[in-house]
Design brief:
single chain; OB fold (Dihydrolipoamide Acetyltransferase, E2P); 2 domains; 8 helices; elongated; binds adenosine-5'-triphosphate
Length: 361
């Protein structure tokens, strides 16, 4: 089963503190949505509102077209999977996975069959007689997932479920989680503060900050075309270059930066081309600098001097100083950037994104 979710103007106030501030979001049935943001931004509060553990101060929640705003957690078509798994230590895996089914009065044979099929889904059928303490962290996490899915929720809510795992296992479990979600087709809403995790698993990422939604989109669209400075900065490394709008022509606009005047295509301005005189910020990903000799259409920010360089395997990460501004540039693995040498600060024109301060969704 699967269902769409509609959140309308959800606000949650704790005393004088606005943990969630007028949040609206539509989630399609079968989507894998990741709520991403720093600690305290309201991710868990939003997830708890979906699960029914927290009631919104105002606003509404509908699941599968039915208003759920004041419905108790047990009566919602949702299941929440927490980071600590909460498996029953004295029960074997089959009984752990079948526990929710027993609570719903399902007959023994049917319950066992279903528990086995979900253990199969997570690759643990052969271990069904084991107890949780006989498993690794990743295996326990899979059992918790099987148990959560066995009760056929329309929407599975996951609160930092991979938070307790070490990095390598975490990356492996992300791939498994995504593959399982695609197989079962259940709507997943997953909370994390890890940008790489969000990119690894999400159909769409919801970037949150201070109780509000800053950006919503596919991993690629948020990375390449962020709609707020916060979103650009949270989704990986970025150079922010302040600028002032100058003239605009048909499909182009000129901006003045500390590194000189630059003509940019109108498409670089994510929320439209602002009027002359307005302050804007150019967002430049470090890997978008192209060395000399690149044959693609380029924008030039003049020349800079390399003040630091470190080899990261896939690329060299360099600091480049130009006219009092220090930029970060990732240069190809095969380059040999040396500190003290000069670098052409050239970019593909369509790789620059220009945002107005205070922009967002
Ligand atoms: N029951 C509560 N009473 C008072 N304040 C609360 C309550 N629950 C959450 N808050 C506050 O609301 C803000 C948002 O909390 P929330 O748990 O949603 O953040 P989060 O983005 O999930 O952060 P984290 O990643 O640290 O879990 C925090 O500042 C938190 O202290």
């Amino acid at each position: 089963m699967t269902a769409d979710v509609s959140i309308r103007n959800a606000t949650k106030v704790f005393g004088a503190f606005r943990a969630l501030d007028d949040v609206s979001l539509d989630i399609a049935a079968g989507e894998f949505i990741v709520l991403l943001g720093p600690s305290g931004c309201g991710k868990t509060t939003l997830l708890s509102i979906l699960g029914g553990f927290v009631e919104p101060t105002s606003g509404t929640i509908a699941i599968g077209g039915r208003d759920m705003t004041h419905v108790s957690p047990a009566k919602r078509p949702t299941t929440t999977m927490f980071q600590d798994y909460a498996l029953f230590p004295h029960m074997c895996l089959r009984d752990n996975v079948g526990f929710g089914l027993r609570m719903r009065g399902m007959a023994r044979a049917e319950r066992h069959e279903k528990a086995f099929s979900y253990l199969d889904l997570v690759g643990l059928r052969a271990s069904s007689a084991k107890k949780p303490h006989e498993l690794s962290g990743g295996q326990r996490q899979r059992v918790a997932l099987a148990r959560a899915l066995a009760v056929d929720p329309d929407v599975l809510l996951l609160d930092e479920p991979l938070g307790a795992l070490d990095l390598k296992l975490r990356r492996q479990m992300q791939d498994e989680l995504k593959a399982i979600q695609k197989r079962v087709g259940t709507t997943f809403v997953h909370v994390t503060h890890d940008q790489e995790e969000a990119m690894a698993i999400a159909d769409r990422i919801v970037v949150m900050n201070k109780g509000r939604i800053e950006d919503v989109g596919t991993p690629a669209s948020i990375y390449m075309r962020p709609r707020s400075l916060f979103s650009a900065g949270f989704m990986g490394e970025v150079n922010f270059l302040p600028a002032k709008m100058r003239g605009t022509a048909a499909n182009e606009a000129e901006v003045e930066t500390a590194l000189g005047r630059v003509a940019l295509p109108a498409s670089a301005f994510v929320s439209g081309v602002p009027a002359a005189g307005r302050d804007v910020t150019l967002c430049i990903r470090p890997e978008h600098f192209r060395g000399a000799g690149a044959s693609v259409p380029t924008v030039s920010l003049g020349r800079g001097r390399i003040t630091g360089s470190a080899f990261f395997g896939t690329h060299h990460r360099c600091h480049v100083a130009a006219d009092g501004t220090v930029l970060t540039a990732h240069l190809p693995q095969t380059d040999n950037p040396e500190v003290g040498t000069e670098l052409d600060l050239r970019l593909k024109a369509d790789s620059i994104v220009v945002l107005q301060d205070g922009a967002g969704v």
